[in-house]
Amino acid sequence: MSAHFEELGWQQTPMGEVSLRRRFDPTVRADVYEVKLGDEYLMSSLFTVAERELARRGLARTPGAGLDVVVGGLGLGYTAREALEDGRIRTLTVIEYSEAVIDWQVRGLLPDTAGLAADGRVALVCADFFAAASGSVGFDPQRPGRTYDAILLDIDHSPRHLLHDPHATFYTRDGLLAVSVFLSPGGTFAMWSDDAPDAEFLAVLDSVFTDVVAERVSFDNPLTRSRSASTIYLATRV
């Protein structure tokens, strides 16, 4: 390996090979950390605004103190790290499918989110978020049916562009009804999407939750030298 590129870790999963690599990007003149699933890019430390806004916006509409929060998908850790900036967080349960992704955090391979695994409020749980969301036990096997003040989800590219076909059930009315059981009344469901707001998915959200909105998040893209955008869906359990 040259100093300009290094594969830091990988793991074979039923969805494909998940890998973490570090490369020097001459455009920004800095090391960039990227997660890939096979040949598909999942996330990059070049683009973290929307991941952080998922936590900010989701928690901004969540009332109360001593918040118990679930993050679906660890990734590079930016959503979880941003959530911890909210002083009301009591517990943060991060559900991550890949053991390797959790291991990268435990080993401190990601400078921007270093220390996340050691935070006493954080539990990094290796599990299938979608299976947990559709089951009767939920996200804490030790406390079946435990409810949370917010669920922040960042796994699939969008409700239509999935990493794994079985995830599709989650984005239906039945799937969202199932996960809503694990939210306290007044709790927030927030979700990142790489696509523009989807009117059909908004209608499904609106059939389960209240105060449903889709907010665009714009950010600089140094690779295209232009602006890019993602969507944050926000909804409240009645």
- The CATH architecture term is 3-Layer(aba) Sandwich
Low-confidence stretches: none
What is the helix tally? Answer: 6
Question: Into which percent range does the helicity of residues fall?
Answer: 10-25%
Secondary structure category:
alpha/beta
- Largest sheet, strands/sense/barrel: 7 strands, mixed
Instruction: Note the overall shape.
Output: globular
Cα gyration radius (Å): 17 Å
Global mean pLDDT: 93
Q: How many domain regions?
A: 1
CATH class, anyone?
Answer: Alpha Beta
Strand order of the largest sheet: 7-6-5-8-9-11-10
Order of helices and strands: EEEEHEHEHEHEHEHEE
Share in β-strands: 35-45%
CATH H level, superfamily name? Vaccinia Virus protein VP39
The CATH topology comes to Rossmann fold
Distance between the termini: 53 Å
